[in-house]
Amino acid sequence: MKLTVSRWLVVISLFASALPAASRTRPRYGGTLHVEIRTDPLKSPDGIARKLIFDTLTQVSDSGQVIPALAVSWEAQSANHRWQFRLRSGVHFHDGSPLTSEAVVQSLSASCKHCAWHVRAVGDSVIVTSDTPLPELPAELARSVYAIARQDDNGNPNGTGPFRFVANSNGILFLSANDDFWQGRPFVDAIEIYGNRPVRDQWLDFSVGKADLVEIPPELLRQAQQDRIPLAMAARPSDLLAVSVSAEQIGDEHLRESIALALDRAALFNVIFQKQGEVTASLLPNALTGYSFLFPAAANVSRSRELRGAQSVPLHLSVDSSSAMLQLVAERLALNLRDAGWNVRVLSQTSDPNAELALHLVHVEAADAASALQETLEDFGAAVRDEGSNPAVLYQGERSFLQSHTVIPLLYLPRAYGVSGRVQNLVLAPDGTPFLANVSLEDAK
Amino acid sequence: MRAREYNSPQRMTSFNRLLAWSIALLLSTPSALALNTWDVSSADLARQIVALTGPGTITLVVMNRSSLASDDVPIIRRALERELRNAGVMVRAKDADSDVRVTLSQNLQGWLWVAEVQEGSETRVAMLPVPGATASGAASSEPPITLRADLLYAQDDPILDVAVLGTGTEQHMIVLDPAHIKAYIAAGGNWQLVQGYDIPHSQPFPRDLRGRIVPSTDHLFDAYLPGIACNATKTGDSWTMTVACSDSDDPWPIGSQKAFYNSTRNFFTGVVVPGFGPKLPPFYSTAELVRISGTAFLFADVNGAVHLLEGGSHKVLTGAHDWGSDIAVVRSECGSGMQVVASAAGAPVADSLRAYEISGHEAVTASAPLNFDGAITAIWTGSDKTSATVVVRKPQESRYEAYSVSLACSH
After folding, report:
1. A126 in a domain, yes or no?
2. A124-138: pLDDT as tens digits
3. Of A246, A369, A400, B298, whose CA is between 20 and 30 Å from B226?
4. Domain check: are A397 and A272 in the same one?
5. What are phi and psi of B353, to 5 degrees?
6. B201 and B253 together in one domain
7. Which domain holds residue B173?
8. pTM for this predicted structure
């Protein structure tokens, strides 16, 4: 596998060296952008197409500030128990229907069935009320899970975003530019997204000029950099690699701590990921919080053995079978656990109810620390409370959760893309999602 | 685990208190003179540390895990030690009641200073967010013709154009952004906002929005945005302006010509009045040069070529292959007296500007590049014709800066 991938990297780098180096500074309109990804662009909550078709009420800037999107202003009342979001006027869904507070309420209610808050429409505003204070609600509503989404008469996605849904056939999602987008029409006329495409196929298409944007997995990033493949990489790592430990099956906290202490993050970082991303024992990357170094990340096999004692129950580590990288990581972790005296078997299934341990790759979309912590805790099924953005409070919340050793953070991995020479002005959101509305094509006519 | 120990409280006598104040005053005088930017934050963090340790002795380690300059670390350490000492906590090299490790970290919002207080096996943590931003480098320039950039104005919202109108106490700066026309007066070395006008628009503006302020002889100025024209007049004797904007496809003035702008895109359509005969291809920007042989009209088309129209002939300008999309003409006392400034073609992260002489139908480099640590989003000839207004987007800071760029001759 590695040889094959290396060969494609060489092919790509040869192709890349022939790309035009110069570009015009002012973006050009027109053309079709070809994107290839490994996942379904629409189905996952943070799917790339969702951010193109839908908008959120708020956005979080690169510097972590909450800025207006479909909501132009917001106001907290009753000590953050009640929020009023005033909607932008003159915005229309792709089917021509106006954006109304009722439509927003319908969308938020559908996307937030288990939320602790209640939402209702009042005039051109949306009111969110909650029994508990929600100081970080504006930042929370910037997550794509809370995108304002509808379906048209044919059941197709219908939003207010920069691109309209056209068709989804033969694994290709066709989108066209929304001329009436409230932030201005995108530069490209259309985007074609090839979903569920293996990396090798993506790179083949990239090497022959059939794809403009392809994924570079973190384990191949270093090689791609060495081979000078044109890359776009997110400003901070956004994919958390972590092991969850079932507290039901391993009730003894000391045994869970033994497992945590056996795992060698440095080896994963150095060997498999070629020093890309960052080693972490905290739920959030240091770039977001500034305090992740407070969580010790070094393995301690002798202490792990000590805590394990005479425990000899076999462990099962489940892992997504479709990812060769995750399987490799799982095998490596199993080796660590065996070194500490644990008897471990790797199960190649995404979610095996018999497995005491599971390996996860969790994407953290939120661009501010408080929302990112909520998002990550939700992903691991933990109870979530919005307690504001004070770093000391976030640290305490994270620490008390991690002390149970039911989730063992390992690494934060970056998202990166190979970018063809005709793509101009590609910017990645802080979580690594390509912001395609601003992209223009050098050879657009 | 070692029990937590405090020094026994000591009651100060009046004499001791007077002595302590005198010493503190003596000690603090030079510190106050050399008050550095970290003093307040150091005092805040020291207070948090003392709340955890109580009075006594500590060991102190200060580590830098941020982009803070290493020169600042000893300054912060000294400030911390001073504040701790003032609060009754003495720093020792070893054998102290507590071990304190201060890490100077950072996150999205700025610096984050973290103090870990270890007493026995127990570690407690204090954190202090410290607002801060990294300094940015200034633009630089080199001879032979030297380009000089003076910062006119900066704001977080996009800037489309800036014009300085009038002179002396009557001088006003007009700033055009996507939502407003704002007027400022010079006051105490700063520009002070005196009037703002919201620009109404019924249709969404195109991405890569452009706009232009054009001074007028019979009223204050006109402002043009895609599909909108605004007219600003002076009300009475005071410098109070009245602005009226309306939907309009009127052509934008470009020197002696007027050009129609595509209201849903980022370029001129190519239709120019009174024009040169045949319709031009769509273009981004123009420069009008007065030469001995007549007036030459340069335009940068949307395909990257720069054209020269002069005396009925049409040629592609040579020597302009590395030009970006934006050009403007600037008068100077150097060379031919009229140079073209052009942005560079290339990645839009860090742009540069360069001056050129137009000799025949060839562009000849006349200055070293003036580098900006951001992307140039607009270049317009300034209202005085002897400068160009250059707008730079600084992605790191999400900030727009407008510069007045002028040309100086090297000797």
Report:
1. yes
2. 999 999 998 998 899
3. B298
4. yes
5. -130, 145
6. yes
7. 146-408
8. 0.77
